[in-house]
Amino acid sequence: MRAGGRTVRSRLRDRIAASDPGLLRLTSGLRTVGAIALALAVLAPFGPGITRLVAGAMTSMVATFAIREKQRRAQAVTLALGLPVALVSVSLGALLSRRPVVGDVFFVVLIFSAVYGRRFGERGTTLGLIGFQTYFISLFVGASPEGLPGMWAVVAVAFACSALVRFVLVPVTPAALLSRLREAFRARLAQLVSAHLALLEADPDDPDAVGKALEEVREGTARLHETALMIQSRLEEGTPDEGTARLVQRRIADAEIAAERLGLVLLSARSAERADTLTLHLPGAPAPEMGRLPGPEESTALVRRDLIALRALVLRSGGEAAENVLRQVRNRLLAYREEENLPAASPAVQDVFRAIGETARAVLGLRIALEGAPEEEDESPETTRSREELDAEDAAIDAEQAGQEEEPKGLRRPTTRAAVQVAVGSTLAILGGELISADRWYWAVLTCWIVFLNTASTGEILVKGYRRLLGTVFGVVAGIVLAGLVGQHTVAAFALVLLLIFAMFYSAPLSYTLTSFFVTAMLGLLYTLLHTYSWEVLVLRVEETALGAACGVVAAAFVLPVKTDRRTNELLGTVLERLAEVTEAAVGQLSGGPADDLLDKARELDQALGDLRGAVQPLTHPVTPLRARRSTAQYVVALLETCAYHARSLAATAELLPAHPSIAADPRLGGAAARTVRNIRTIAARVEDEQTDRRPDRQVETGASIASLLSAPSGDSAARYGRITTRVLRHLERLDEAVVGLARPLGVRVATKD
């Protein structure tokens, strides 16, 4: 079946690839459910009883989701080491179950060791997680010393089934995963072009339609950036060598920047004045006053036609006839990179055509890097020129090693601090949990443990605890309904358990509340299987969860606390330092200075910004009562994303210099941009002052535009200088404005300098 020239199957495949980049969530769900189902299938014929079946299912789940390494060999080693850890942990859980005080003390020591093990990397994190979870399983199923031989057999079978599913039934190699991520990037790029098309066609007389179209562009831009970061994190493992990794990284960055710029210039063309980049990065920001594209309707029709063509070029589906058409489309779009080939239109609309041409060039570069697209006989001169530029850039890319920052020691080390905090919180959870229930106290400990996972500040722990409690409350209701439906039907209960586990892992990256909901609903079914289900048990689950979350928050707030403000200030300072480094290095290269490793610097900036975005979630959460702080945090993050976009664009332009004889360095840029770099470092110093309680008077400078600081070039090189400087100036001026805008909400005085 075909729809609009593309099969329904290909459309569905692209939609799935875009919604689940690399199929990571689907793979995680399938692996976990597959390991559990296989363990149950192996154990059931031996009649081990429901208790051991539940233990086998839970152990296989832990053995599957705990593995974090990317390389298959490392995964196999960690899984092999995890088996003896699990056997020892289950044995101690059974032996100490009859000595409550000693068992509680050991549980706290185990929790401390498991969290402290994170300092030893992914393997340490995994082994700690396996040790904690299998000890918890022994408590959950009531393992006894007499039944240890049977439990050992169950654990061994669970680990074997997990290994079989991971390495044989649902294998994922780094190269295959990277390939799927690239498909996801292509699908999300096509979705973003579709959003651009919707923005073009939105009726200016319908504010709701314009707002919806703009929001789609925002979401598409954010999702494309998210996928680009995921690809960057997998490049070293998924590519044959470092040179190839850097090449793919460069082409992904080119495509992302070109697509984001296309949205910006399209928005500017439809606005009464040039749109601020902040509009694309601030969620809920009002849409600028929109009109139709200036000029005749024919210009709008041409832009619409070319956006549709660009989307087709990104998707590249169809047979040989479609390939011939796509080659012609590509030749036409690439021609827009030359001034003489631009259609007659207003300057703003011509900017749109230029952006379409640059995006087509980025798509070509991405295809060459990923697929090695050979040169074709019917290429136009513009396509040949673009290919030569890309080949020259590829030859100029070489690898450099990045330095590592010194890691804090002692209690300042995050893993040590978190281990102390979770040990104190778990002690409180054990004491309080046993007051509520002598049999189910471990649920409070589990919640306290979980709220500390992947969190670094009191605010993050508070938000995570709230989400877990909310999901648990709704999950209890679902558990009651499901338990009533299945009754004593064991097969139906296990089938529903598998379905809920799949939903739990598939939704985990999207919503922690949903994950907690599915976990609690699943527990209702497990209690039914163990013949221990009752309304009181599920209510007790809510009480223990609330207690565990409260104990985690108390420990985080009073034991070596890391306040949300301190955490966000540290990350904000890091983002500003990375921004200054990228800007200074890019401008230095554009001014004629030595080449620098701009790709790695831009990647570090993106990673730092991603960390900050996660850390400010407690400040931007919808339930926060501090509405003013919430708005300020959203505004600051949006400004930083704007700054990062312009810095990435400067870096991408700077990297074109060695390979493009038509682009020359402009020595005037260094002096003109010095003010911007100074301002960034001034704001970073102000943020550091807040952490040390110093209050020196700092100020950023503003004044004449950067363009006015440049003296006009003369002679034969004027046109060449003008072309490169126009593009760079656009980004420098927007970056300068965004940095000055960043100073005000951060409490830095702005001084006007003549």
From TrEMBL:
<keyword id="KW-0812">Transmembrane</keyword>
<keyword id="KW-1003">Cell membrane</keyword>
<feature type="transmembrane region" description="Helical">
    <location>
        <begin position="418"/>
        <end position="436"/>
    </location>
</feature>
<keyword id="KW-1133">Transmembrane helix</keyword>
<feature type="transmembrane region" description="Helical">
    <location>
        <begin position="74"/>
        <end position="95"/>
    </location>
</feature>
<feature type="region of interest" description="Disordered">
    <location>
        <begin position="371"/>
        <end position="391"/>
    </location>
</feature>
<feature type="transmembrane region" description="Helical">
    <location>
        <begin position="545"/>
        <end position="562"/>
    </location>
</feature>
<feature type="transmembrane region" description="Helical">
    <location>
        <begin position="469"/>
        <end position="485"/>
    </location>
</feature>
<dbReference type="InterPro" id="IPR049453">
    <property type="entry name" value="Memb_transporter_dom"/>
</dbReference>
<feature type="transmembrane region" description="Helical">
    <location>
        <begin position="50"/>
        <end position="67"/>
    </location>
</feature>
<feature type="transmembrane region" description="Helical">
    <location>
        <begin position="124"/>
        <end position="144"/>
    </location>
</feature>
<comment type="similarity">
    <text>Belongs to the YccS/YhfK family.</text>
</comment>
<feature type="transmembrane region" description="Helical">
    <location>
        <begin position="442"/>
        <end position="462"/>
    </location>
</feature>
<feature type="transmembrane region" description="Helical">
    <location>
        <begin position="491"/>
        <end position="508"/>
    </location>
</feature>
<feature type="transmembrane region" description="Helical">
    <location>
        <begin position="515"/>
        <end position="533"/>
    </location>
</feature>
<feature type="transmembrane region" description="Helical">
    <location>
        <begin position="101"/>
        <end position="117"/>
    </location>
</feature>
<feature type="transmembrane region" description="Helical">
    <location>
        <begin position="21"/>
        <end position="44"/>
    </location>
</feature>
<feature type="domain" description="Integral membrane bound transporter">
    <location>
        <begin position="429"/>
        <end position="554"/>
    </location>
</feature>
<dbReference type="Pfam" id="PF13515">
    <property type="entry name" value="FUSC_2"/>
</dbReference>
<protein>
    <submittedName>
        <fullName>FUSC family protein</fullName>
    </submittedName>
</protein>
<keyword id="KW-0472">Membrane</keyword>
<feature type="transmembrane region" description="Helical">
    <location>
        <begin position="150"/>
        <end position="178"/>
    </location>
</feature>
